[in-house]
Amino acid sequence: MSEWQTFCLKDLGKIVGGATPPTNNPKNYGNKIAWITPKDLSTLQGRYIKKGSRSISRLGFKSCSCVLLPKHAILFSSRAPIGYVAIAEKRLCTNQGFKSIIPNKKIYFEFLYYLLKYHKDNISNIGGGTTFKEVSGATLGLFQVKIPPTYYEQQKIARTLSVLDQKIENNHKINELLHKILELLYEQYFVRFDFLDENNKPYQTSSGKMKFSKELNRLIPNDFEVKTLGNNPLCNTIKTGVNPFKQKVYYETKHIQETLSLNQGLKVSYNKRPNRANMQPTIYSVWFAKMKDTKKHLFLNQHMQSWIKESILSTGFCGLQCQKHTFEYIASTIKYSLFETRKNNLATGATQKAINIEALDYIFILIPNKELLNNYSKITKPLYEKISNNIIETQTLTALRDFLLPLLLKQQVKPQ
């Protein structure tokens, strides 16, 4: 391979900032132009982004110093925090929390993406500021990197890493689809009550016998019961405390991406672990984040056994120990939006609101008959198993990608 060359980032593309339209005019915001903030990247599953949680209007775009970034521009968050990286999937703009690079002909856009991923900590270290760190466009522009001299060599390196990232992204998409299917099944069984009866007909639609539940303020099937999440025959609340260990990986709620993937946790020993590292994951356990408006879940079936053995969780999670045949039902109940709404309504606290264990006695859940529970488990078990397998595979692929990235950029490994 040819000798790698040193460039300042400003020599590899145009560095541009972003802006926020005045928020006192609602007409500045709408659905015309995608507008990205660092918060959007904090939950991004994959390399590419095409929209954020908000968008701006043409009026809003003209009201500030927003720059319309072209497709394949590289977004780099320059404050709070520094180092989120993404590729623009289409034309979009950002707020002032970014210094984005529009690559020139010297560099392949995906190679620049991986280059910034590799150097993000070094770039963060040169940030300045009194209240919070920030990297200016000028500072970022002077940051030096080494790159292969040809597009072809850059593409070979980028594509080696892209193969892994594409598989990771596909796993995320598959898991999103599987969760949507699970939600539809849950609604059919336990919201509309149109599970198949003994005559193979949808229960409620076919005039199945119903009764009124005061707790839920709605009709439910005659043989269903209503209990609380804190006291029911299907699951028990997991208490704090972990078994002694030499070394494990500690996961806080921030390490969990919804129900789709696991970020890297922190390696800890038993004696030197943080105080909050005090929850023991188990097989057939369901976990949710206690914090209000924090939608993080873990569904740990037997296919997560290797992960369970190596991990401990934060007390920011609440765990429910299920039985083998009730796991899928409890997981689906916790994942369903009505649970999250109820959890948020019961959250308390002066600064950061969260639900406490006692509040579980005020969350009502349906207790279906055992035959229906077994039937729901049989139908949904393969979907939960596939989700778990994808999560474990994604962790392996992510570790491999992160292992290869510095080797490729230090020229210690040559792409084939």
From TrEMBL:
<protein>
    <submittedName>
        <fullName>Type I restriction modification DNA specificity domain protein</fullName>
    </submittedName>
</protein>
<comment type="similarity">
    <text>Belongs to the type-I restriction system S methylase family.</text>
</comment>
<dbReference type="InterPro" id="IPR000055">
    <property type="entry name" value="Restrct_endonuc_typeI_TRD"/>
</dbReference>
<dbReference type="Pfam" id="PF01420">
    <property type="entry name" value="Methylase_S"/>
</dbReference>
<feature type="domain" description="Type I restriction modification DNA specificity">
    <location>
        <begin position="1"/>
        <end position="177"/>
    </location>
</feature>
<dbReference type="InterPro" id="IPR044946">
    <property type="entry name" value="Restrct_endonuc_typeI_TRD_sf"/>
</dbReference>
<dbReference type="InterPro" id="IPR052021">
    <property type="entry name" value="Type-I_RS_S_subunit"/>
</dbReference>
<keyword id="KW-0680">Restriction system</keyword>
<dbReference type="GO" id="GO:0009307">
    <property type="term" value="P:DNA restriction-modification system"/>
</dbReference>
<dbReference type="GO" id="GO:0003677">
    <property type="term" value="F:DNA binding"/>
</dbReference>
<keyword id="KW-0238">DNA-binding</keyword>
